[in-house]
Amino acid sequence: MMDSLVRLLWPEMVLTVAACVLFLLGVSRRAAVRRLTAVLAVLTLAGVFFGLLASGAGGSLMGGQVVSDPWNSVRIVEFGYYIKILVAGVGILLALLAWPGNRQATGNSAMDVGQDTGEFFGLMLLSLMGVFLVASSNDMILMFLGIELASIPTYIMVAISRPLAVAQEAGVKYFFLGAMAAALMLFGFSYLYGTTGLTDLHRIGQVFAASAGGIGQAPVLSPWQVLAVVMLMMGFAFKMAVVPLHFYAGDVYQGAATPVTALLSFVPKISGFVAMIKILFVVGGGSWVVPQFVTQILIVLSVLTMCVGNVLGLLQFNIKRVLAYSSIAHSGYMLVGLAALTSPRIAGSDEGLSAVLFYLAGYGIMNAAAFGVLMLLPARPGIAGMGGVGAGGKMPPATSAETFEDIAGQGRKHVALGLAMAVACFSLIGLPLTVGFFGKLYLIRAALNQGLIALVVITVINAAVSAAYYLRIVATMFLRSEPQTQWPQAAQPADDCDGRGTLPIKLAVGLSVFGVLLFGLVVPAIELLSTQSRSAARVDIPSSVEQPTASAMAR
Amino acid sequence: MHYSIVLLLAVPIVGAIVGALLPNARSAKWWALLVSVATALVGVWMAAQFDWNQDLSAVPTSDRLARSVQIAFTPGFDSPLHLQAIQFSFSLGVDSISLWLVLMTVLLMPVSILASFTYIKERQKEFYAWMQALLAFMLGVFVARDLLLFYVCFELTLIPMFFIIGIWGGSERRYAAGKFFLFTFSGSVFTLAVVIFLGLAAGSFDLATVTQYAQYDLTDSARFWVFMGLAAGMAVKVPLFPVHTWLPLAHTEAPTAGSVILAGVLLKLGAYGLLRLAVPMGLIGPAGLMFPTVVKALAVLCIIGVIYGALVAWVQQDIKKLVAYSSVSHLGFCVLGLVALNDYGMQGSVLYMVNHGLSTGAMFLVIGMIYERYHTRDIHQLSGLAKQMPIMSFFFVFFTLSSIGLPGLNGYVSEFLTILGAFTSEHLGIGYGIAAAVGIILGAIYMLHMVARVIFGPLKVPHVHEEEGHKPLSRDLNGREITVLVPLAIAVVLLGVLPTPVLNSVLEPVRMVRQPVTAPIVGPTAQSPAEVAMVQRP
Fold first, then answer.
1. Contact B152 A433 (CB under 8 A)
2. CA-CA 20 to 30 A from B270: which of A108, A136, A402, B127?
3. CB contact under 8 A, B181 and A444
4. pLDDT tens digit string along A76-97?
């Protein structure tokens, strides 16, 4: 039995052990040890990533089986494997972005965690591990724990990411709002438990399925269960930064150091999406035929999220805020996929889910590229987003490019970085030859397949609106010349692009740009990702089919 | 399989990549010229392979559409160029309409590169690399036989053009580039939605399959929205009347080569898209034309564009802006002929696309040459240039006359045919023809008005401070500039006196555009597109 547990949960175990090791190493005061922690974090993630690829790619290991533990609190199917591979892969990029490249190994141009480098990477691994748990969980308590494990380290990471008041303010703000979201979620879970007497999601799905009028009919929920589902969706909406629970995004993304912002825009989001998808499957009674109100909520949320995110994105002056609202808008696009998934026209079609899974992968990669480029560009004094030059004309510490002024003309000075940003932005717009294009294509295709024409029209209009602010980033980098400001002597920016310490960041940018182009240009690669996301669209076996599993017999 | 068509795209793409890596500006220049000439040679090679007098009368009607695409490249079902997840395939092919536009494009590109040799002074390597990338994407639109590939190339033309206008343009370049990008992108997102819808519903993106699906299996309301979506993207690009406002700014601010390509080729992408996608997929049903009212509405927009563009052109102070507005007016004729949906109109429309590319492209080239010397395009600051620049003046007047449709030069034939098409059309009629004819008169007025002011009259040129570090240009056109203009002038005369080869060769394809595709041998979903292709192209 131990053996099967190890087989099930080895990635989680590896990550936890590695995080503990990093916490221990973090005690050391030596810079070399701190640098070692970063190496260890990246190696761990790479090990998990390649290990998962080797063992579970394409669900070949699973062979259509569901592997669960004796208590059925963990059930692993292709879906979980896909999410884990994706999170580990993007996690490598995120860890590289946070590389402590300066001499004291306390951070890099955009980040300064002081002596806490080891703790920082430990927290990062724990946060990623949280998403892994959500992906494997079949028990509402474990799922809640997973979501919180993905989130709580990020509150700390935001606060310690740089020695600035804004970062701490962002951390506190994020923590309080996150606690509120957790309360919402717990409320939802408690009602779900109260009305069914179960914490096992798979069996709750069976209870719901029994309440349906017949095969292919949506379950009939009691009012308390409706309340539970709505509260759960709202709690997840916070993690996904979905309107109307998006308010923290702008401030928190701006306040946190850029590598942490990159993490915030991916890790909590994907934990929210994974939980949402799993709960939708439960609410559908082990299928995607959910009660109508759920689909309606999803449609309303997606429209609101896309429109609000994109319109507010137009109004920003700080690029990190632009990317915050872009992150909101992209959640809206992915909700279109979920709306298509649960839409009743072709019930049981999981095209929407595979589109969302494809998009999550694409978004993770292109987003990392955009933030990576920002990190490699220097900030300008006096106009930096952090309230300008401090006393004595000094730059605020740990501040890389943040405003449009900062990046003006930088595309000419650093052509490779400029092109990388251009690729990332064009991918975020959804122009061809990038992964963003195929992501949008699959989402729109899934929605059209379900006859959600109006939603598609709103989506494409939003894509056009979003083009305006992404293009502004590209235009500022390439078409404007560098502003001729007088540098205060103390604030002369070190040209951060030349240091050896930035090599890992450059590697991350290079890898993600390569990924964006690979999955947007090379047909076999696109085919591979499409096939994987399609086979991963199996969240669990339909619960109406009773399957006596080996675990049940063991009990 | 014809690999010439693959080469047509591969040469400029490789050229762009290599060009971006070259060590210095001088080599980048000549490399770009070499690549564009090589692409042109590939185009000529394709023209030589092509059977221009193809007789399809013996071919069963269901086969004609496939047979008219004579030079084709269709990747197999399991080829790495075929995306099975959505049945997207990198399939290329040209019929005579596409091939004429390809030939026009490969003629315009070397001359605009040659014309940029002294005009582009900074960041030259990037400029020439973007130009070559642009060339590949534009050709991609014309040769795509896959709906999604068409859209991909159509969108990709935005990126190089955005940088070309935004980096090397005039003083308002950033605004112009952004406006250009956002206008066209906003239009084409609707096209994307329709493209995905059609590809999903038809089970393939293959143009023939999708066209047939759209004609036989769409409901009327679906067909209407398919047309609106496809037309939305194309109308902005053409541009038709209410959505033309990006054009004057973009044309005026773009560097000379950018304006030439913008007016010469990019606008044709819209017209070609209407011809290739919007009309056959959105207007034609099993019984022929479905929405006469929509056609009338389009024709009215064209006529408003013709008259309004002409009137606005008349009052311009900037000669480049004047020519830009004349494009709005001219493209109105082009689309009017297209929506006449008869032989005259549609043949004229295809010819108009080629002709407008040549004469307006040439006008922008000449204006660029004037601008390089006097650093102004203001109609009030320039006068009597014939005294100082006789050779330039010859070309200026020559291309003006071609543009306003002097008999014997190319503009005449196509303008005449489009208006004749409007007169004789079943759906339009005499009112549309008369209104368009007024546009011709206005066209002559504003163009001759400009020629009279700028070329003739007392000599007046602004005093120019020569920039340091650059050799001043000769007073009149130099050898390089004459080399740029002569090929275009020859093409203008040839198409003016001998338009019949073009007209005859496109007759059968334009008929196929407006007639429903007859039922095929194999159903669209019964077999994979590759197998269908194999059946249809033995």
1. yes
2. B127
3. no
4. 888 988 999 999 999 999 999 9
